[in-house]
Design a protein that fits this description.
Elements (H helix, E strand, L loop, with lengths): L1 H10 L1 E2 L5 E2 L10 H14 L7 E5 L4 H11 L3 E7 L8 E8 L4 E8 L8 E9 L3 H13 L2 E11 L4 H7 L4 E10 L4 E3 L6
Parallel strand pairs: 3-4, 3-7, 7-8, 8-9
Antiparallel strand pairs: 1-2, 4-6, 5-6, 9-10
Bound molecules: guanosine-5'-monophosphate.
Pfam families: Pribosyltran
EC number: 2.4.2.22
Catalytic activity: XMP + diphosphate = xanthine + 5-phospho-alpha-D-ribose 1-diphosphate
Length: 194
């Protein structure tokens, strides 16, 4: 997605070989116009898939799920993150290990909001190690719903997330795919044509 790649080049800050800071427009201060365009781009890429709900994880995925779901005319759900492992019969839950924070937390979704009739699109800000997204796919599997695919705003293609999810047969659409990055330069996999 051209506008997104240009914005990453202009305002993104590479903090280390693996961490990209985008909090001036994507995940702290948020550009609503770009966010809506991102939602439209995901809706277009998954057109015809009869999606019934969009699923994300709090907090940085919420506005992208909102923009996508609004464009598709369906509800969105955000999985909640909890430190304490308090399993309840009323939720689908999965553990997620955060490599950046070196901690394991639990994500959960109330059972009443996912059913075997649902066709789910997952949307999130980053695809990095894939741990968070794998957790969401486990929740979908447990609910019996159909996973249509994953929309990632930024994919760090040099990390293992895509490979992991593709192995499980999941369709992935990323709007900006970073092949490599350093403090001097960010290299994208696809040209900024669309
Ligand atoms: P995962 O490693 O599970 O794919 O990514 C988990 C979460 O970590 C992402 O949803 C995102 O919020 C955060 N994250 C991963 N890599 C980066 C990064 O390079 N920059 C920022 N700002 N967040 C990241």
């Amino acid at each position: 997605m051209k506008e997104l790649q240009e914005r990453i080049m202009r305002d993104g800050k590479v903090l280390s070989a693996s961490v990209l800071k985008v909090d001036s427009f994507l995940n702290h201060q948020v550009d609503p116009r770009l966010t809506m365009q991102i939602g439209q781009a995901f809706a277009k890429r998954f057109e015809g898939e009869r999606i019934t709900k969009v699923l994300t994880i709090e907090a940085s995925g919420i506005h992208f799920a909102m923009a996508t779901a609004y464009t598709l005319g369906v509800p969105f759900i955000y999985a909640k993150k909890k430190k304490a492992i308090t399993l309840s019969e009323e939720v689908y839950a999965a553990p997620v290990h955060s490599f950046t924070r070196q901690e394991t937390y639990q994500i959960s979704v109330a059972r009443q909001y996912l059913s075997a009739e649902d066709r789910i699109l997952i949307v999130d800000d980053f695809l990095a190690t894939g741990a968070a997204l794998v957790g969401l796919t486990q929740i979908i599997k447990e609910s019996g719903a159909q996973l249509v695919g994953i929309g990632a705003v930024i994919e760090k293609s040099f990390q293992e997330g895509r490979g992991l999810l593709e192995q499980a047969g999941v369709r992935i659409e990323s709007l900006a795919r970073i092949q490599s990055m350093s403090t001097e330069h960010i290299e994208f996999i696809e040209p900024a044509s669309s």
